[in-house]
């Protein structure tokens, strides 16, 4: 996860989660503040994206404007509404006082702190169980099924991602970091919880990175003719995010000779203990709840998250 991989970085160029411009974060985003000022009179309960004033694609840099439309901008606003309300709406005195009392940074309870938080322990369990399902499916499909892995020979498209050239070459996969295969691969790459799974291949002796991330349609590793999202979803289900007409890998010519066993692969455990120390349950859930819902294999999610939290995210 980005938040984990960046834990020791001191000079990380910051990118705003709201306007995607660099050099500030959303806490200090002038665009967000301006958008809030023009729209704060709207009723939070009935607000719709077409009622927004002055929120359009010009909020993004020229580069992103090529990919995004006005609707993307309005969606950003709606998605950040609860954040903006918390940050900019005036707080009552009572609220301000309450906030000073010690409380659990993870679940918000006033009766314990993070260290004794049972919700935190349950949440780590939920993340791990969710991740296991993703990794198991990934393993069956790509490592066992397709033969991907370090040492595999693949047929790879030549030229850059944007070229239409049909020229291909056989190339070796020189690095295939299995520890970064996580359900958070499916998150948009701007998310703090996103993990990039990056494969290294060596077409014609030149080391090349092939990333798999959601977010940009060209940043996917397997070639699939055309970019028909609906068709890809039908064909590949949750793994559709790995396929695109800009993908580089056409097929595995010869499977990885020393693929890890599934047992070993499933034994690799990720850094969830780290993120629950850094972020609150609602921060993590607001970006991951849909993936947890789709993957978590047991029927006790409401018990594990707590009824109040569960209902907030999953019933509306
Ligand atoms: Zn910004
Ligand atoms: Zn707690």
Folded structure, characterized:
- The protein is built from 13 helices and seven strands.
- The model has no long low-confidence stretch (mean pLDDT 86).
- 26% of the residues are buried.
- The protein has 316 residues and is α+β, with helices and mostly antiparallel strands.
- The strands form two sheets. Strands 4-3-2-1-7 form a five-stranded antiparallel β-sheet, with no helix packed on it. The chain has a two-stranded parallel sheet with strand order 5-6.
- The chain is globular.
- α7 crosses α11.
- The site of one zinc ion (ZN) has 9 residues, from α2.
Number of helical segments with 4 or more residues: 13
Biggest beta sheet summary = 5 strands, antiparallel
- Helix coverage percent of residues? 25-40%
Order of helices and strands: HHHHHHHEEEEEHEEHHHHH
């Amino acid at each position: 996860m980005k938040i984990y991989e960046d834990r020791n970085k001191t000079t990380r160029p910051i990118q705003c989660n709201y306007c995607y411009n660099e050099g500030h974060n959303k806490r200090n985003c002038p665009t967000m503040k301006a958008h809030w000022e023009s729209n704060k009179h709207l009723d939070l309960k009935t607000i719709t994206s077409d009622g927004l004033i002055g929120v359009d694609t010009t909020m993004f840099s020229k580069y992103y404007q090529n990919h995004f439309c006005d609707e993307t901008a309005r969606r950003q606003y709606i998605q950040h509404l609860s954040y903006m309300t918390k940050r900019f709406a005036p707080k009552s005195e009572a609220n301000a006082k309450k906030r000073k009392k010690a409380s659990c940074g993870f679940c918000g309870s006033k009766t314990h702190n993070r260290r004794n938080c049972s919700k935190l322990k349950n949440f780590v369990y939920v993340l791990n169980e969710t991740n296991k399902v993703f990794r198991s499916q990934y393993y069956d499909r790509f490592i066992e099924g397709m033969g991907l892995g370090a040492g595999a020979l693949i047929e790879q498209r030549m030229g850059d991602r944007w070229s239409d050239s049909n020229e291909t070459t056989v190339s070796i996969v020189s690095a295939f970091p299995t520890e970064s295969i996580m359900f958070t691969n499916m998150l948009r790459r701007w998310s703090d919880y996103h993990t990039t799974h990056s494969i290294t291949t060596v077409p014609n002796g030149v080391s090349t990175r092939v990333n798999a991330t959601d977010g940009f349609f060209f940043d996917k590793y397997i070639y699939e003719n055309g970019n028909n999202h609906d068709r890809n979803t039908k064909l590949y289900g949750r793994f559709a995010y790995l396929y695109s007409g800009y993908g580089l890998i056409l097929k595995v010519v010869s499977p990885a000779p020393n693929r890890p066993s599934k047992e070993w692969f499933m034994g690799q455990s990720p850094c969830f203990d780290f993120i629950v120390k850094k972020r609150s349950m609602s921060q993590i859930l607001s970006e991951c709840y849909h993936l947890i819902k789709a993957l978590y294999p047991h029927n006790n999610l409401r018990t594990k998250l707590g009824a109040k939290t569960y209902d907030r995210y999953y019933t509306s």
